[in-house]
Every structure is written in C-alpha cells, then in structure tokens.
Amino acid sequence: MQRTRSTNEKRLLSTSNSTTSSGNGSREGGDCLKELDGIANIVSAARSYFQTRLAMGEDSIVLGAGRGRSRMAERSPEETLALLEKRVARCKRCPLHKTRTNVVFGTGSRKTGLVFIGEAPGRDEDLQGKPFVGRAGQLLTRIIEAVKFDREDVYITNVIKCRPEGNRDPLPEEVDLCSIHLAEQLEILKPKVICALGRFAAQAMSGLNLTMASYRGENLFYRGTRVVATYHPAACLRNPSLKRAVWEDVQKLMEIWKNA
C-alpha cells in the first residue's frame, strides 16, 4: 500500500534538496574563485616582471625564446657586455639612482678570466664612472701589476653599481636588487676565478655570512667558479699589516687561475 507523504515530510525533502543544490553551487563558486585568484597571481607576476625590466632601462623586450637565443648568439661577449652596460646605466631598481652621479658598471678585459669584485663605488668612482680609481684603486693596480698583469688585462667591478650616500655599507635590499646586474656580468665574462675584495663581496659571491678571516680560510664557489676572498684595498690602507695576508691570497688566486 503506497503511503501518502505528510506535509512535514514534503517540507523536509524540499529543504534537503535545496541544501544539496546550494552546496554544489558553493563548491563551484569556490572553484571559480580559486581560478580567478590563480589568474590574478599570474597577471600580477607578469606586471611585476615587466615593471622590473622597464626599471632596469629596457625599452623593448623580445618575445619568443628561439628568436632571442638566435640574436644573442650573433653577438660577441664584448657586444653583449656593452649592451648590458647601457641597460644598467638607466637602472632605477633601488633609491640609489636618485643620488648617483654615474653608474659604475665595470672595466677591463674578459680574456684572462680574472675578475676582481669590490663592494660599491666611492666618491671618486661615482664622479668618474669607473671602479677603483681612488687611493684603494691605486693599491689594487699595484697588486695586479705585482702578479705580472696590467690593470686592463683583468676585469674589475663591484657588487653595487651606484654609490651609497656617504660611503655607507650597502643595505641588504640594495645588494639583492643590484646583484642581478653582477650575475649577468659574470654570465657573460665566464671567469676562471673570482677575487672577492672585502666582506660584502665575499658574502655576495658565496652566500655565506662569515667574518673576513673565516672567508679567507674557506674554499668558496660562485655557481661552480672558485672564489678567493681577501681584504679590501681600503682596509689595507687603514691597516697596512693586512697587506701580507692580501699578498698570500693573491698568490693563491694565481695558483688557481693557472690550473683552471
């Protein structure tokens, strides 16, 4: 015998069906929101990428990996380095661009495979747009000449490309923002060995946070390339007793270079 549903049963079933339908709708709505959030994240990342490239001075970006690689392959390392220098000269990634006179990109030759990296430009470097041209630079030149090279035979640059006001230490965020330029330089230069001049350069090259004495005792590497850390020439001017340690480090540098 078929039973007739009561009014209460009909109301209960109706409520249950409505709740199920609403639940499905909520899940579908949640999935849509997740998809929209994902798209928004992609758009935000793309916007950030292009803003960064524009801030670095690029006025056009080549799309299409194949064409880009082909064009790059046609350029010599010297031409690629010159193009990078022009781009870095327009960089506005950090506030240091507001107070600089010149971007100090780097000078020298890539042919020997020897790269010297300092901390940041000083007053003289900022005025001339060249690294290590003050008293510390004169000492560095004498060190290079002592191992039978001319200054023009090696490549000299800094972690930071713009002078921090008052020759203060670079801030961590300035190092992070500027290190992309150094990474691109080194990718083009392909050094046999790197000499990190001072604690900031040693930290940037190795990713380690040590004392200068500890850096000197470590076997350091930057992306597979040996790094020899030594005291900054400016430190030797303040404390001449450090010159002996620097000479020992430079001899180690040359030994690695010869065997690279």
Explain this structure to me?
By secondary structure, this protein is an alpha/beta fold. It has a single domain, classed as Uracil-DNA glycosylase-like domain (Uracil-DNA Glycosylase, subunit E, 3-Layer(aba) Sandwich), CATH 3.40.470.10. A six-stranded mixed β-sheet has the order 1-3-2-4-6-5. β5 and β6 form a beta hairpin. The chain is globular, with a radius of gyration of 29 Å.
Helix and strand topology:
Blueprint: H1 7-55, H2 65-73, H3 77-88, E1 107-108, E2 114-118, H4 123-128, H5 135-146, E3 155-158, H6 172-189, E4 193-197, H7 199-206, H8 212-217, E5 220-222, E6 225-230, H9 233-238, H10 243-259
Parallel strand pairs: 2-3, 2-4, 4-6
Antiparallel strand pairs: 1-3, 5-6
Helix pairs in contact: 3-6
Concise description?
The protein is an alpha/beta fold and 260 residues long. It is 55% helix and 10% strand.
Please name the defining characteristics of this protein.
10 helices; alpha/beta; Uracil-DNA Glycosylase, subunit E; disordered N terminus; 260 residues
Characterize the biggest β-sheet: 6 strands, mixed
How many separate helices?
10
Spatially, the strands of the biggest sheet line up as 1-3-2-4-6-5
The CATH homologous superfamily is termed: Uracil-DNA glycosylase-like domain
User: Would you count the extended β strands for me?
Assistant: 6
Number of domains: 1
Percentage of residues in DSSP E strands: 5-15%
How far apart, in Å, are the first and last alpha carbons?
97 Å
Estimate the mean pLDDT confidence.
Answer: 83
CATH class: Alpha Beta
* SSE pattern, N- to C-terminal: HHHEEHHEHEHHEEHH
Assigned CATH architecture: 3-Layer(aba) Sandwich
CATH overall fold name: Uracil-DNA Glycosylase, subunit E
- Structural shape: globular
Helix content: 55-70%
User: Which structural class do you get from the secondary structure elements?
Assistant: alpha/beta
